[in-house]
């Protein structure tokens, strides 16, 4: 992928960030009945630091100061596997998640599968 040759920014490389847990995260999300932000079912899947990053419910405490609520619109740039998008959607916000790594975008879509506003 590259920009117009007239661009002062120059060529743009595709995003190639992954922590190696994407396949396990997607498998866990696809098989889980409860994909909610604080899911005990997903938390039980934590067997490594990368899976803790994606499934530990303790991360939700970071969102409390934001006071996200129904009626707000949230743009989640670099939404990864949808941890925050899910939490924002559960709070009632309308959420647009943007993710450049296809495997992570697919996981975010699966995590938010039952939230119409995400």
Helix share bin: 25-40%
Number of continuous helical runs: 5
- H and E string: HHHEHEH
Radius of gyration: 16 Å
Q: What is the number of strand segments?
A: 2
Kindly state the mean pLDDT as a whole number?
88
Shape: globular
Give a written overview of the molecule.
By secondary structure, the chain is an alpha+beta fold. The chain contains five helices and two strands. It has a two-stranded parallel ribbon. Helix 4 links the parallel strand 1 and strand 2. Helix 1 packs parallel to helix 5. The mean pLDDT is 88.
Secondary structure elements and pairings:
Blueprint: H1 22-31, H2 40-43, H3 49-55, E1 73-77, H4 83-90, E2 94-98, H5 102-111
Parallel strand pairs: 1-2
Describe the structure concisely for a colleague:
Helix content is 33%, strand content 8%.
Keywords:
alpha+beta, 2 strands, two-stranded parallel ribbon, 118 residues
């Amino acid at each position: 992928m590259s920009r117009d040759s007239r661009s002062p920014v120059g060529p743009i490389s595709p995003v190639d960030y992954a922590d190696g847990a994407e396949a396990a995260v997607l498998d866990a999300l696809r098989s889980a009945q409860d994909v909610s932000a604080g899911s005990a079912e997903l938390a039980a899947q934590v067997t490594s630091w990368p899976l803790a990053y994606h499934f530990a419910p303790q991360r939700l405490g970071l969102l409390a100061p934001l006071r996200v609520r129904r009626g707000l619109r949230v743009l989640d740039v670099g939404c990864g596997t949808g941890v925050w998008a899910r939490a924002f959607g559960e709070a009632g916000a309308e959420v647009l998640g943007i993710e450049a790594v296809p495997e992570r975008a697919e996981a975010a879509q699966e995590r938010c599968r039952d939230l119409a506003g995400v």
